[in-house]
Write a structure and sequence with these properties.
The chain is mainly alpha-helical and 488 residues long. The chain has a domain at 100-384. It is built from 16 helices and no strands. The longest helix has 129 residues, at 346-474.
């Protein structure tokens, strides 16, 4: 909702009944009991009743705290249980206007495509003579326009109701409860959506009646113009009907109601806003949102177009809607050809054509509605598997592989280390042996050399001694003294 303007910052609820449109005297009479313990007891009972559908065994303690906190604060604000009832009644009445308005706006994309397909023949030029392909193009375009349009309109329509809030605006305990309810009974929700979309079948019944009447009376040109108008404007009316039916289902499922208002994080601000606003306030807010729409188109177009190619949207648009319209278009062509071959008048031919369209479209819309629910949930589960389940398992596998590689590397490293150490020790031993052998060899050689030289020296000395002895004996060593008596 819009934020509170400074002009509405006066003390809250001087008399809550006055704020809600009652007289000053009535509000004063009601406010007299607000300070009594019974008022607090009644508020707690009221809050307990509002949040009963969101209470579980698991969140019981948290829910009790939420109930008590809301009751205490309301008591401080001077609001009693009767004033709460009046506020909720006012909120519901205002939402009754918002829901169909939003539905009509949501039907705009379908209406635009209807006009484009009728007024721009070039869109289906490639499918001339192929009714199945023509229907497929129409269905694919309608589905894509619906997705893109919904994306562009999100900001213009989000958080625009009092008794329904986006998950990010709710307290955590309430957001979790709403998520559980949203995911419950998918088949039931699929059936409800398929049934609610039959509002478009009602539109097609109106097209049948008008086409048959005008073709029989005025002519095909006027009938075609009327069909385009009913297809576009009737699409918006069908969108309103669809929104109202789905809102009723959501209310029965506990997705709409007072708990959504009092379960918000900003519930106090919302209460003040609701108390002070007039019923026309929602139209003013709607005008403000509409004024911002061009900016939304500029900023959100690309992201909205990307959504067309998401898994769930491809299934619902390409499969259910485009496929259904393709089959319907083929059946319509067959019915029309048969009617012409029998020479039926233009009004009867148009009636046969549109009767088949009503039946085929009813099945197509049912499939589209069911697929929109089931495919979305299947896609969400697929995304969950991809984003949440696969990564841990992949990580576990990677960790296991890494551990195996580390173990193998350690074993290989140990083997290489042991081999290296063994080789190193062997080489060291070989080196030692070689060194010992070298030392022994050089010692032996040295000893042999010493022995040889000693032996040679002894032989030489012995020879010299022998020579000396011979010289002594022969007198060769004796010489004559010189004349002066001195030896030479």
């Amino acid at each position: 909702m819009d934020s509170i303007s400074p002009s509405r910052t006066q003390p809250l609820l001087q008399h809550e009944m006055q704020a809600l449109g009652a007289s000053t005297s009535a509000s004063a009479a009601t406010a007299i009991t607000n300070g009594e313990p019974q008022a607090l007891t009644d508020l707690k009972a009221k809050m307990t009743e509002l949040f009963r559908g969101d209470r579980t065994e698991e969140n019981g303690a948290q829910m009790d705290a939420l109930v008590q906190g809301r009751a205490n604060k309301l008591h401080e604000m001077g609001i009693d249980s009767n004033a709460v009832d009046l506020l909720l009644d006012k909120a519901e009445r205002m939402d009754r206007v918002t829901v169909p308005t939003q539905g009509a706006v949501g039907g705009l994309p379908f209406g635009v495509v209807t006009v484009v397909l009728d007024k721009v023949p070039g869109v289906t030029a490639d499918a001339v003579g192929n009714p199945g392909y023509t229907g497929f193009i129409a269905g694919a375009m309608s589905g894509a326009a619906d997705v893109v349009g919904a994306g562009l309109l999100t900001k213009a329509t989000e958080d625009s109701m009092w008794l329904k809030a986006p998950a990010d605006k709710l307290e955590d305990i309430m957001a979790a409860s709403q998520k559980t309810k949203t995911e419950a009974n998918p088949l039931k929700q699929a059936g409800q959506s398929a049934t609610a979309l039959q509002t478009f079948t009602v539109r097609n019944v109106a097209r049948l009646a008008v086409a048959a009447s005008l073709n029989a009376t005025v002519g095909p040109k006027a009938a075609a113009a009327a069909d385009t108008a009913i297809g576009s404007l009737g699409g918006m009316a069908a969108g309103s009907g669809y929104a109202m039916l789905m809102h009723k289902h959501q209310k029965a499922a506990g997705l709409v109601g007072g708990a959504q208002l009092f379960g918000r994080k900003d519930w106090e601000k919302q209460i003040i806003e609701l108390r002070d606003c007039s019923p026309s306030r929602q139209y003013i807010n709607g005008a403000k949102r509409a004024a911002k729409f061009p900016l939304d188109v500029a900023t959100d177009t690309l992201s909205s177009v990307r959504k067309v190619f998401e898994g769930g949207n491809l299934l619902t648009n390409g499969g259910a809607l485009a496929g259904g319209f393709a089959l319907t278009s083929m059946a319509r062509n067959a019915a029309k050809t048969a009617a012409l071959s029998h020479g039926l008048p233009a009004g009867a031919v148009a009636a046969a054509d549109h009767a088949v369209n009503v039946a085929g479209s009813a099945l197509t819309f049912a499939a589209y509605g069911a697929a929109g629910v089931l495919a979305g949930k299947a896609t969400d589960k697929g995304v969950k598997v991809i984003q949440e389940d696969i990564p841990p398992k992949a990580q576990k596998l990677a960790d296991g592989a890494q551990k195996g590689i580390e173990t193998g590397a350690k074993a290989t490293g140990k083997f290489a280390g042991d081999t290296y150490d063994s080789a190193k020790a062997g080489l060291a031993e070989a080196g030692t042996a070689i060194g010992d052998a070298y030392t022994s060899g050089t010692t032996a050689i040295g000893e042999a050399y010493d022995s040889g030289t000693t032996a040679l020296g002894n032989v030489a000395r012995s020879g010299a001694d022998r020579v000396g002895e011979l010289a002594e004996r022969s007198g060769l060593r004796r010489r004559q003294d010189p004349p002066n008596g001195n030896p030479a």
